[in-house]
């Protein structure tokens, strides 16, 4: 039993008087909250919370325990601030680097959820299109969505996996008939982001694998700008499903080749940070929160595969990661 984690969860339930709302604010599942409070009650041999189908209330023992929990959590916060000050680091300050793809999809919700839990935390965000544009000295923690993670001395932990989709807009397909086979791509206007293969795309069906040469009319680094160009009707592009889920749902972007497999379409979302001794409290808390959030709240998209989060890994080569089953 992690008593401190259970105390934090109980304190949030006591504040909200609602298990579901407490789970939402903490970024964990309802079942984790319910189980944690039950384990804490079992450990203390006393009921802390009265639960009915309509309301949640604290027992007299729960009220008393809540007061002591508040004192404990305030003391822990003070201790954290003292240690951060001793290390010359502002309390609760995190330097975050994120790829433009991740920064425009999951990151805002992750930061908002964490800020609810740790209201003293401040963020300094750097957004990049290419991982080579940032160095380890620029950040405390980095989020990257890549097909092949470059060799790194950082601790690399997989969070989730997303897949590419080839799409066009209704306006474009009103002018040009959608391609029915990969070969027909040669007669279409193709747009390419720098994080997508720009020389050829590979497809697989029951007849085998087929390689199609791509001759883009527009290439740029930022996938957000490619997405906007596709929406404007400029052409067809290969984009991460996580970036265009809303547009696929409302029909403003249309997928092509739904019955033909696009090879090499998987991207893994990674969180990277230094494995140096005496990791800052704020950084450890944030990394643990992010990992747990993805573990408890996997995406539900039908084409998206969530990678189970395992132990932290030091990355030595892409081959090693692939053979350990992460990709």
Automatic annotation (TrEMBL):
Keyword Transport: no
Residue ranges annotated for the HTH lysR-type domain, each copy included: 1-59
Source superkingdom: Bacteria
Gene3D superfamilies reported for this sequence: 3.40.190.290, Winged helix-like DNA-binding domain superfamily/Winged helix DNA-binding domain (1.10.10.10)
Pfam families reported for this sequence: HTH_1, LysR_substrate
Keywords noted in UniProt: DNA-binding, Transcription, Transcription regulation
Keyword Transcription found: yes
Family: Belongs to the LysR transcriptional regulatory family.
Protein name per UniProt: LysR family transcriptional regulator
Species: Paraburkholderia podalyriae
